[in-house]
Structure formats: structure tokens, C-alpha cells
Design brief:
Layout lengths: L19 E5 L2 E5 L14 E4 L2 E4 L1 E6 L5 E8 L3 E7 L3 E2 L5 E2 L4 E9 L3 E9 L5 E10 L5 H4 L9 E8 L2 E7 L5 E9 L4 E5 L2 E10 L4 E10 L10 H22 L2 E4 L2 H16 L1 E4 L3 E4 L11 H10 L6 H12 L24 H4 L14 H16 L2 H6 L1 H15 L42 E2 H20 L3 H21 L1 E2 L4 E2 L2 E2 L5 E2 L5 H4 L8 H11 L32 H13 L3 H14 L34 H15 L1 E4 L2 E5 L9 E9 L2 E10 L2 E10 L4 E4 L1
Helix pairs in contact: 3-16, 4-5, 4-7, 4-16, 5-7, 7-9, 7-10, 9-10, 10-11, 14-15, 14-16
Length: 720
């Protein structure tokens, strides 16, 4: 995120709070629940491809009026159903058509294009002559423009090309690329009128009583010059079957989770299909999970690595894909504009016009202090889960390159800590996971001066050094492994001297450019727990501190304590609640066996889930204190779905159950059940070359674990 991109967060009225999202591959649609994309103040609404909005207006009118919205739903994260009906209107002969006597059902899905089937049924006892209008427009704005960035110049919207069954909207960008939106109907419209970037399509229909009439629509970004000879109705049917088959295959390949709580089962069902929908294929580079819709539907190093780490228990394929994709884009040179360094893992990769014109440095942009560390952490965790020696050998050079960045470039002032400082004039001021412009402040609310050494980054570094040592020892490089272990020990010792805040029983936020401690109380210190960098007693003090009332809202742990001057529960990073932040903290609570705190944290987040669409945790929500029967307060421009928020469900699941991979097998230690359940079953769990079915059940106040089925020689050690 660029500092110049943050305007929209301070102007949430530009966003419709209730939207539906449909995505497949590199195309996604954000619409209002009634399926429309309004043209005025449309915020994130639209159809997007390659970081460009290819459709900025899509509205249906029945007899000159907007239909009445009944309901909408997204099934299995990829198939939309929208129910509409008519308002009162008059026929030309004066006949009054009562409201709710014509039903309209829109079915939508995406596969290389947006497909829509509109079914109409007339429930009047007589035929109805009806004019149906579709108003469409394409502004071809770059995603950064949509988010609020101002451009001095734009390209040119071209005249509409009218075809027999549709039209083409076109735009020539400042990068001299022609971008087009192909719009095709079946049957052919009665009339088409248009001007650059806009069109109106009219159907003159006669609806017999109690009969179904179908209209099909296809909207395709950059369709080329060759029109398909296949009927849209046939393509719609074939694509529906193809998509359903692909999603069922993903579910069969993944771990299956069942509980005796139907609501939680639905949470997992949505999360599994969401992770499938968020994946994107890039020819020549591979597949990776996008960070979130609408703003981050692109490769993000930190997000994809953390999501894959969270979802190892579901399907290690996500981790394999992320590691391979990011290794292909690993930094090769020193480039201040993109903040690239040899060995560094990218922050964000974009393909839009502003990137092509070098208005933004995302080709890719490397302004992340922690993505490189997460690459090592994920590689270590993936190897434990899969024991995939071929993958480890494949990643040996990228691993060494990551270490090279850590040792040669990450420490900006030679003090042994990893710091960031913005180099690119269009880059991020803050480059940890809290990367908004005002996220790193002292207790007076003043912005920190760089270079900045964040608390969680040093903890990640400690874990990354240990993981790299473990992996290099397996690869036979014992000398380097021993050196890395020494560095990790020294880092741990210094960290516990420099980052500990004794009077709070907690950790400082960061060291600023003059090595002054920022003692601001923020959640970042909680993320240090999962790395093991703290001694036991200090870790337990941190756990207790995080569950105190100034941090814990009742729904989750806030990003900043209520005691701080900069605290704002409606801010992006200074008082809100992020599920992924809580999930990483939860992993640390399990590591130190802080089970009371873990149970309380899980209870809050799972209680929040029913208040969100599709039982899905969004990117973040406001940090207001839980009161009575009211639910959590939504953050107005949160991504939903968002990858690491979805992955948080699987991370909580793993750490509540106490599942951990070790050198000698799978350990199950002091399991806890998910809130609201008394029995949990795991089927088809892939660990190394084995497949497991496990059960967890509460009996007489204790949770008992058992192995239902095991294929392979993996040892399962159950600890009371």
C-alpha cells in the first residue's frame, strides 16, 4: 500500500458497506447485494482484471425502474444467486402490473469471463410486454486510482464498437496498451446505443403467464478479435459443471473437518472454498493465493506466506505454490525505486497501467521487512509437514539468498537487528505488517523516525535463523547451520535485554533510528510468542497482559492498547482487531501452554463470527469493547474475503487441538475443543507420506484424542 493510496480509508462513505464478491482466477466482481454496480460513488464496485476495473457500471431496469431486491447468496465461494422482483408499473395501454408478480433470478459465475443467466417468470394471468434495460460502463481505472490515488493524466476512452449480439468498450492507456471489455447477450438485444465508455442495451420482451424466459450475458476482459461460436447458454452450463467439479476436487484433496456444531462446520466449508477462489494462476510464474478482495487481489509476499503457514493443516499445496512463486521473483539487484535487494522476497506485484507507466513501483515492489523471514519460516514448517526432500533441495538456493539478504542488507546500521527505512519516493513509510502511514508511533502519538527495528521482526528473525539452521543441517551444511544457531542465541539474549518492558510485563514496540525504545503498547509483542524467543515466565506475563481489558476487547486482541494516546478503535492499525494477528498470538499461547488465555481468545473470535457475512472473519473489524448482545463493529473498507483472515480459522483449529509436528512424528498435547463443540473429527490429514483420521471428544471434563485411521508409518504421540 502506498501512502498516497490511503485516502479511501479516510473517506469510507465512498464505499457501499454491503457487497457481494465473486472471484475466479484473475477476475473478480464486487457488486451490491442486488447484483448491480452503481455508477455514482461506486467505491470498490466493479469487474476487475489485471489490477484494472473493466466494468464500472452494471444496472438492470424493469420498465424503467430498478427491480426490488429480495435476497442474494454466494454458494461455495464461486456461484452467485440473486433474487429480484418488479415494482408497480403501467403498460402502455394503462394496465397496472402489480408489484411482486414478475420474478427475476440472476445466476452468476466467473471463468475467464463473467457469465450471467437471467430467468424471468410472469405470475400474472396474462402476457406482459416489458422493456428491460441494461446500463453498462467501463472506466478502466487502475486499482490504485479506485482506492484514491490521483493521476495527472489518463488515457483515452474509445468509441463503442457495436456488434450484432453485443458491444465492445475500449480504452487506450498511457502505456499504449489497448484494454477492452467484450459484452455479449443471448438472444440479441432489441437495440444498443452507446458513447465512449458507456452503453445502454434494451430488450423488448413478451412474458407469457407462468413461463420461463432466459437471457444470458457474458462480460469478458480483453476478449481479443476472435468471437466464440459457442452459444453463451451452452458456455454457462459447461462452466457451471466445470467449476463445481474443480471445487469438489479441491475439497477432496484437502483435510476434511467435521464437528458436532453445524454453524462451525459451515465456517469451515466457506473457508475451504474461499481459499480455492482466492488462488490466481500467472503464466510462467505459477499459482499463488491473492491477499484479499477488493484491494489486494494480487500476489503479496507476506500475506501468501502467512496464509500458507496457517493452512498447512488443510492443504500443503498452498505452501508449495507460494514458495515456488516467490522464489521466481526473489530480488536480484539493488534497485532503490522498487526497494529491491538481492535475496529479498517481494511485497506486492501488480500488472495495471500505473505500474506499467512507473507511477507506482509494483513491478514488483519489495518494501517489506518481514516477507523474507516468513519465506524461511514457511519453508521450515512445510518441510516438517511434508518431509519433501525434493522441495527442500529445490529451495536450497532461495533459502541461502534469503539469508544473504538478512546478513548483508537487512541490518541497516550494523547492530544485529533488522530495520527498514523507506527508499522509494512512492514506497511505504512503514514496512512491517502494520504498514499504514500512522501505524508506528511513540506514546505521545508521534511518528517514529527510521530506521525502525520492530519487535516482531526480530522475533521472526530468531525463528528464521533456527529454521534455516535446521534445514541446512539436513542439506549437509553443518558449518553454516552451527553459525546460524550461534547468531540466533546471541539475538535472543540481546532481544531480551533491549525489547523487554519490565514495568508492563510486556515488550516494547520498536527501536527507532536513534535506538530509543518505543514503549507504545501494541499487539506486535504478542506475535513474538510463537517464535520461542522469550523465556517461559516472560512469555506467560505477555500472555496475561494481552488478555487484560485494555488489549482484549471481548471479541479479540486489539492492535493497540486503549491506554495509548494514538488509540482509535476505528483506525486501521491503532486499535482495531485483526483475526490473523490474533491467530499468530494464539500459536504463541499454545507454544507456552497458556491454555486459559488461548481458550478465552478463541471464544471471543468465534463469538464474533455469526455477525459477519458467510460466518467469515473479515480482514479486520473495529476494536470497540464487547457490550451485551450487540456484535462487533465493522471496519468500513475491510477486505472480505481476505486470505490470512480465512487462514486464521485453520490456525486456531490446529493450536486449540494442540497439533505439532516434531522430529519423531505428530504430537497431540493437551487438546482443547473449538468453542461450542464436544466432538471434532479430522479426515484425510496429510502429514509426510501418511494420511490420518483423528477424533477429539470431551468426556468428563477432559478432551480425549484418538487415531481413527492411519495410512503410512508416521508416529502419533498423544500427551495427556
Amino acid at each position: 500500500m502506498l501512502d498516497t493510496e490511503l485516502d479511501l480509508r479516510h473517506n469510507p462513505c465512498a464505499i457501499e458497506p454491503a457487497t457481494e464478491v465473486l472471484k475466479e482466477g484473475g477476475i473478480f466482481l464486487v457488486s451490491l447485494p442486488d447484483g448491480s454496480v452503481i455508477q455514482r460513488d461506486n467505491g470498490s464496485l466493479g469487474l476487475y482484471y489485471n489490477d484494472t476495473r473493466y466494468l464500472s457500471h452494471l444496472e438492470l431496469q424493469v420498465a424503467g425502474q430498478r427491480p426490488i431486491f429480495l435476497s442474494s447468496s454466494i454458494r461455495d465461494s464461486h456461484f452467485a444467486q440473486i433474487e429480484l422482483t418488479n415494482p408497480v408499473f403501467n403498460l402502455p395501454d394503462g394496465t397496472v402490473i402489480p408489484a411482486q408478480t414478475i420474478h427475476l433470478r440472476q445466476l452468476r459465475l466467473i471463468k475467464d469471463a463473467l457469465f450471467q443467466r437471467l430467468r424471468l417468470i410472469n405470475f400474472n394471468p396474462f402476457p406482459v410486454k416489458l422493456l428491460l434495460h441494461f446500463n453498462l460502463a467501463a472506466d478502466f481505472r487502475d486499482i490504485f486510482e479506485v482506492r484514491g490515488s490521483q493521476r495527472r493524466r489518463r488515457g483515452e476512452l474509445l468509441p463503442v464498437e457495436v456488434r450484432r449480439q453485443g458491444l465492445v468498450l475500449a480504452y487506450r492507456g498511457l502505456d499504449n496498451l489497448l484494454r477492452t471489455t467484450g459484452i455479449t447477450f443471448e438472444p440479441a438485444p432489441t437495440s444498443i446505443t452507446g458513447r465512449p465508455g458507456q452503453a445502454e442495451i434494451t430488450f423488448a420482451l413478451v412474458l407469457p403467464p407462468q413461463k420461463k424466459l432466459y437471457l444470458h450475458l457474458k462480460i469478458e476482459p480483453d476478449p481479443g478479435n476472435i468471437s466464440s461460436r459457442n452459444k453463451i447458454s451452452d458456455l454457462f452450463s459447461a462452466t457451471t459443471i466445470e467449476q463445481a467439479t474443480a471445487y469438489h476436487q479441491w475439497q477432496r484433496e484437502s483435510t476434511r473437518i467435521w464437528t458436532d456444531n453445524s454453524f462451525i462446520n459451515a465456517m469451515f466449508q466457506t473457508a475451504v472454498t474461499d481459499l480455492k477462489a482466492l488462488q490466481i494462476d500467472y503464466p510462467g510464474a505459477g499459482r499463488i493465493i491473492a491477499a484479499g478482495i477488493p484491494w489486494y487481489t494480487a500476489p503479496f509476499g507476506r500475506d501468501s506466506l502467512i496464509t500458507s503457514w496457517q493452512a498447512l493443516i488443510l492443504n500443503p499445496a498452498l505452501a508449495h505454490q507460494a514458495l515456488r512463486f516467490l522464489a521466481r521473483y526473489q530480488g536480484q539487484k539493488v534497485d532503490r525505486w522498487r526497494e529491491e535487494r538481492p535475496g529479498k522476497i517481494l511485497h506486492e506485484l501488480r500488472h495495471g497501467e500505473m505500474t506499467s507507466c512507473r507511477e507506482v513501483p509494483h513491478s514488483p515492489y519489495y518494501g517489506s521487512i518481514d516477507a523474507t523471514l516468513w519465506f524461511i519460516i514457511l519453508l521450515g514448517a512445510t518441510y516438517r509437514w511434508t518431509r519433501d526432500d525434493a522441495l527442500l533441495r529445490e529451495m536450497a538456493i532461495p533459502l541461502r539468498n534469503c539469508l544473504r539478504w538478512c546478513l548483508d542488507y537487512g541490518d541497516l546500521d550494523g547492530d544485529g537487528y533488522l530495520e527498514y527505512q523507506r527508499e522509494s519516493p512512492a514506497g511505504l513509510a512503514n514496512q512491517g505488517w502494520k504498514d499504514s502511514w500512522d501505524a508506528v508511533v511513540d506514546r505521545e502519538g508521534r511518528l517514529a523516525e527510521g530506521p525502525v527495528a520492530l519487535v516482531e521482526v526480530q522475533a521472526y528473525y530468531y525463528l528464521a535463523l533456527n529454521e534455516a539452521a535446521h534445514l541446512l543441517a539436513i542439506l549437509g551444511d553443518e558449518l553454516t547451520a552451527a553459525d546460524l544457531k550461534r547468531r540466533a542465541r546471541e539475538l535472543r539474549e540481546r532481544f531480551n535485554q533491549d525489547f523487554w518492558l519490565e514495568n508492563e510485563g510486556y515488550l516494547i514496540f520498536a527501536l527507532d533510528g536513534r535506538k530509543r525504545p518505543l514503549t507504545t503498547l501494541v499487539s506486535n509483542g504478542g506475535q513474538a510468542l510463537f517464535t520461542g524467543i522469550l523465556p517461559l515466565e516472560r512469555a506467560r506475563r505477555v500472555a496475561r497482559r494481552l488478555l487484560a481489558g485494555d488489549f482484549y476487547s471481548g471479541w479479540g486482541i486489539r492492535t493497540m492498547s486503549k491506554k495509548e494516546r494514538a488509540y482509535n478503535p476505528m483506525s486501521y492499525h491503532n486499535g482495531s482487531v485483526w483475526p490473523h494477528d490474533n491467530a499468530i498470538i494464539a500459536a504463541g499461547l499454545r507454544r507456552y501452554q497458556c491454555l486459559e488465555e488461548l481458550s478465552r481468545l478463541a471464544a471471543g473470535l468465534f463469538a464474533a463470527s455469526p455477525h459477519f457475512n458467510y460466518r467469515r472473519w473479515p480482514e479486520l473489524f473495529c476494536g470497540f469493547t464487547r457490550r451485551g448482545l450487540s456484535g462487533p463493529v465493522r471496519y468500513p473498507v475491510a477486505c472480505d474475503p481476505q486470505a490470512w483472515a480465512i487462514g486464521s480459522l485453520f490456525s486456531f483449529f490446529q493450536h486449540l487441538l494442540g497439533l505439532k509436528l516434531g522430529e519423531h512424528g505428530l504430537f497431540i498435547s493437551r487438546p482443547l475443543l473449538l468453542p461450542g463443540t464436544s466432538r471434532v473429527e479430522i479426515r484425510n490429514l496429510a502429514v509426510a507420506d501418511s494420511r490420518l483420521d483423528l477424533a477429539f471428544e470431551e468426556k468428563e471434563g477432559r478432551v480425549l484424542a484418538s487415531v481413527l485411521k492411519k495410512e503410512g508409518d508416521l508416529k502419533v504421540i498423544i500427551e495427556a
